[in-house]
Design brief:
single chain; 5 helices; mainly alpha; two-stranded antiparallel ribbon
């Protein structure tokens, strides 16, 4: 029962906190403390986790993955999801930085439009 409660704590959102000590490192420590293996990304089960795709079953009802009953498998599943989320967040941040460099920020573009309007 206690292990289930701890696994539920691992389900918390993995935003930028995954880069902090309490994030990814803490999640890996959860596995190490219980002598669980941290599966490599080439492992067939991890590949299966990574192949999960969300879609809408009905309006406002997405399909959601089921947390495995095996604690080692569940912890590796959650670790994999957090690693994927961290990767995607990094890509999104890099893309936004690039867009800002090329196009400028919202306030900057708004000022340009205002000055153009005033010149008329």
């Amino acid at each position: 029962m206690i292990m289930l409660a701890r696994l539920k704590l691992l389900r918390k959102p993995c935003t930028n906190s995954t880069k902090k000590a309490s994030g990814k490192i803490g999640r890996e420590d959860f596995l190490r403390q219980r002598s669980f293996l941290i599966w490599p990304k080439e492992d067939p089960k991890v590949r299966g986790f990574r192949n999960f795709r969300a879609f809408w079953v009905k309006d406002n009802i997405p399909n959601t993955p089921n947390l495995p009953n095996n604690p080692e498998e569940a912890a590796n599943f959650l670790l994999t999801l957090c690693q994927m989320e961290t990767f995607l967040l990094k890509k999104q941040i890099d893309s936004l930085k690039e867009k800002f460099i090329k196009e400028g920020g919202f306030s900057e573009n708004l000022l340009k439009k205002r000055l153009e309007y005033r010149k008329r």
